[in-house]
Design brief:
This is Acetyl-CoA hydrolase/transferase C-terminal domain-containing protein. One of its GO terms (molecular function) is acetate CoA-transferase activity. InterPro entries: AcetylCoA_hyd_C, AcetylCoA_hyd_C_sf, ActCoA_hydro, NagB/RpiA_transferase-like. It holds the Pfam family AcetylCoA_hyd_C. The chain has 413 residues and is of the alpha/beta class. It folds into two domains: 167 residues, Glutaconate Coenzyme A-transferase; 227 residues, 3-Layer(aba) Sandwich (Glutaconate Coenzyme A-transferase). Helix content is 27%, strand content 22%. The chain has 14 helices and 23 strands. The radius of gyration is 22 Å and the shape is globular.
Length: 413
């Protein structure tokens, strides 16, 4: 039986810990956060590791104390101050590589988890956040659980109640992220993407405006499936329209991140860990997998930037390379990068060449680039044809400048 956990005992465990695993998405316990914030001194000398999602998990663990640290695969705006202070350890890893690191290499003094109450078999469901915790908690000496009656019990990974060191049962709000409002530019991009998707396709989508817009645009399709790291409220529209296949595994995801309406529908989702959802062996067996993701910019070589904005790193690659590579292995699969042709300020998102430094997706992985102006299928084009196809889907006012830039650039290749 786990010990009874209260704030005092919780902070004692934290004071004695050098390495703590803290889950992201809706696995993040707002109760544990409150306890940490109430006694920041307890985090002196502690490093928190986890996969906190930019714009979603806004809590800065490294900001708790000048001697606290945070280890992450995403650099977000919320971590900028701690990064500049030298207290953030950034790992440039994909999701699949992060899973292997947590499973095979990382070791923790304490793992923090938020779970549903134990079922009749004595297992606590990880609920709507099953992504990385199954790899991390077995490598922790101590498991501290927030057993939240508001956490849905889902079809997916769980933790034996007997494996928990100490626990508190307390109702606390789950992290909620409503779908963003409709955006005209992204809706136009989504209509182009929808033209590539037929009945019976399997879709993977990232979080945000693109996901929501694409799901609205394909509501009239039939026998669709979802295989994704994350699903949001946009999924509910597919249920309502009858677009999804009639199968228990029509929707497979690692996490659900939306509002209570989505969480109440989670019994229809098959939840799986990243070691399954992002594995090459899994993805290579999904015929017709369409991996659909957004980007900040694409250059005329086909290189994709999804991380840097105004010269600053604002995110990480996440599962993008995993899903693009996986989709390209499959029969009729497509790796789709979709973005508005211009920023809200009118700057062209298709650029001659990305600045020197890391790229999120190499040109050898380029497949299909989509803007509201069309689709550039790059799979079998030479470099000149590739540049021409990308220029053709740029905003019209930028095409002449891009063509001139390519003429000069191609002479230096």
């Amino acid at each position: 039986m786990p010990h009874v956990l209260d704030s005092s005992r919780f902070l004692d465990y934290i004071r004695a810990a050098s390495e703590v695993y803290a889950p992201g998405c809706a696995g993040h316990s707002l109760l544990f956060q409150q306890w940490l914030q109430a006694e920041p001194q307890a985090s002196a000398g502690t490093r928190y590791s986890g996969v906190q999602i930019p714009t979603v998990n806004r809590f800065d663990f490294a900001g708790l104390h000048p001697q606290a640290r945070q280890r992450t695969i995403f650099l977000s705006a919320e971590l900028r101050a701690s990064w500049l202070d030298g207290r953030v350890d950034y790992l440039p890893l994909t999701y699949s590589a992060t899973w292997r690191w947590l499973r095979d290499t990382a070791r923790f003094d304490v793992a923090l988890v938020q779970v549903a109450p134990p079922d009749e078999n004595g297992n606590c469901s990880l609920g709507i956040a099953c992504d990385f915790t199954p790899a991390a908690w077995p490598n922790a000496r101590i498991v501290l659980a927030h057993i939240n009656p508001l956490m849905p019990r889902t079809r997916g990974p769980s933790i034996p109640y007997s494996a928990i060191t100490a626990a508190i049962v307390a109702e606390a709000p789950l992290l909620e992220v409503p779908d963003p409002a409709a955006d005209g530019a992204m809706d136009a991009v989504a209509e182009r993407v929808a033209g590539l998707i037929g009945d019976g396709a399997t879709l993977q989508l990232g979080l945000g405006r693109l996901q929501s817009a694409v799901l609205r645009a394909v509501a009239d399709r039939r026998n669709l499936r979802i295989h994704s790291g994350m699903v949001s409220d946009g999924l509910l529209g597919l249920y309502e329209s009858g677009a999804l296949a009639d199968a228990e595994d029509a929707v497979v995801a690692g996490v659900a991140l939306g509002t209570d309406a989505l969480y109440r529908a989670c019994e229809r989702i098959a939840f799986r860990e990243v070691g399954y959802t992002h594995a090459a062996a899994t993805l290579g067996k999904i015929d017709g997998l369409h991996a659909i993701n957004s980007a900040l910019s694409v250059d005329l070589l086909g290189q994709v930037n999804g991380e840097f904005l105004s010269g600053k790193q604002m995110s990480g690659v996440g599962g993008l390379p995993d899903f693009i590579h996986g989709a390209r292995q499959t029969v009729a699969g497509r790796g789709i990068i979709a973005l508005p042709a211009s920023t809200p300020k009118g700057q062209c998102r298709i650029v001659p060449m990305l600045p020197a430094g890391p790229v999120s997706l190499a040109r050898v992985d380029a497949d299909c680039i989509v803007t509201e102006h069309g689709v550039a299928d790059l799979r079998h084009l030479d470099v000149h044809q590739r540049a021409a196809a990308l220029i053709a889907i740029a905003a019209p006012e930028h095409r002449e400048g891009l063509a001139s830039a390519w003429h000069d650039l191609s002479r230096t290749l």
